[in-house]
Design brief:
Number of domains: 2
Helix content: 10-25%
Structural class: alpha+beta
Strand content: 15-25%
Order of helices and strands: HEEEEEEEEEEEEEEHHHHHH
Radius of gyration: 21 Å
Number of strands: 14
Length: 396
């Protein structure tokens, strides 16, 4: 698998309203009063930021981590710029090297504030070198944040030298070190940046950042009447259809062309006047969802975690088909051997989606079980869908 196929540009963030009948309404952005994640110091020589070629002269940020000394993950040569060879492409680097290629794997942190929702990391060419900058997609007046530079141009992989005051750190959550890498600085961030959504009930939720990303993209929402997200509320089957179609609408160049009304019931238990009928019918016709053996859809029944994986796989395949690509999903990581999926109808799907940007993961990211028949909570549905979108983007 060529490295350039797994390096992604960040999905552009846009906030659009959803009907209150689906998953709530979007609330305003305000500064957070609490910090969900913390950071941990790391050995700086164990990490490297790389300007990786994407084609047509463009570059994308790649961060590698030397997790053990078993085998070198990269080599460096020359100067101005320092040329990097990603050696991890030559062996099974599981447990030896870490590789972060998109906004799920890295973000900016300044003065103990996570700016990942407000600034995206981008590499621009300027004055004979590549410069790593943070750029705001929400406020064009917001100043860019300069983080590092290559000090020269090279056609291949080049080392990004961080500016004074910047360093690598690792994200932590409730005392546990996560794989997410911060480009951190103690400098004060630009004034007026809202670093989080003012949900009052996700500060300690492991999916907090992905919930915020999902809301920013506009395919799920919070509840404005009390500024909550209600992360542990179970998702229904019709709500899942609405969520997934909303997410697919964020795929570049996707044109879902949903009709405004439906003439016949898509399923015997889904009336044409039901708020979700058009979406359910369209999703059925495009092989994104299916009903049960008795012909029903059961729109208000809660979604199991296994059903969520089946729908997200079909959604990813549909997204690829809109770009006339092979619909087979390109696996990104080793599969996870869950302890409770053997013999389950969705075992193969769950295994596949665990390798697809960790769309399938343990409840609350803890343990070895997947809990395939447990109900799907809004928090995990949002997080898994964000991961699916990011993984799809990597294949374009």
């Amino acid at each position: 698998m060529k490295l350039k196929r797994i390096i992604t540009t960040a999905i552009q963030l846009r906030v659009v309203a959803l009907a209150a009948a689906t998953l709530g309404v979007i609330i305003a952005l305000t500064p957070a009063n609490t910090t969900t994640f913390k950071q941990e110091e790391v050995e700086q020589n164990k990490f490297i930021a790389i300007a990786a070629p994407l084609g047509n002269g463009a570059r994308q940020l790649l961060i590698l981590e030397q997790q053990s000394d078993t085998q070198a993950c990269w080599s460096e040569s020359g100067s101005n710029p320092v040329v990097v060879e990603p050696l991890l492409l030559q062996f099974d680097f599981t447990g030896i090297c870490g590789r972060n290629t998109d906004s799920n794997g890295y973000s900016i942190r300044m003065a103990n504030q996570d700016l990942g929702l407000y600034y995206r990391l981008s590499i621009i060419e300027r004055d004979g070198e590549f410069v790593l900058v943070g750029i705001s997609d929400r406020d064009r007046q917001a100043p860019p944040i300069e983080i590092g530079r290559t000090r020269g141009i090279h056609s291949g992989f080049s080392k990004i030298l961080l500016e004074p005051g910047w360093q690598f750190t690792k994200r932590t959550f409730q005392g546990k070190t996560l794989g997410h890498v911060y480009l951190s600085s103690s400098l004060t961030p630009p004034a007026g940046i809202p670093t989080s959504f003012a949900f009052t009930d996700i500060a300690n939720n492991v999916y907090a950042k992905e919930i915020q990303q999902a809301v920013a993209l506009g395919f799920v929402a919070g509840f404005s009447q009390d500024n909550t997200f209600r992360p542990e509320v179970a998702l229904t089957r019709e709500q899942l259809v609405s969520l997934v179609l909303g997410a697919l609408s964020k795929v570049p160049d996707a044109n879902l062309n949903l009709p405004t009304e439906i003439a016949t019931k898509p399923y015997p238990d889904v009336e044409t006047t039901r708020w979700s009928a058009v979406k359910i019918g369209w999703a059925r016709d495009n092989q994104i969802i299916s009903g049960y053996a008795d012909g029903t859809f059961r729109p208000t029944q809660t979604v199991t975690r296994a059903e969520l994986m089946a729908v997200l796989r079909r959604a990813a395949e549909f997204a690829k088909s809109t770009r006339r690509l092979d619909t087979a999903l390109t696996l990104k990581q080793p599969t996870t051997a869950f302890s409770d999926t053997t013999g389950h109808w969705a075992a193969a799907i769950i295994s596949q989606m665990s390798s697809y940007c960790h769309v399938a993961s343990p409840p609350n990211e803890v343990g070895t079980a997947f809990a395939p028949d447990a109900e799907t909570h809004r928090s995990y549905a949002a997080a898994a869908t964000v991961r699916m979108l990011d993984c799809v983007k990597q294949e374009f």
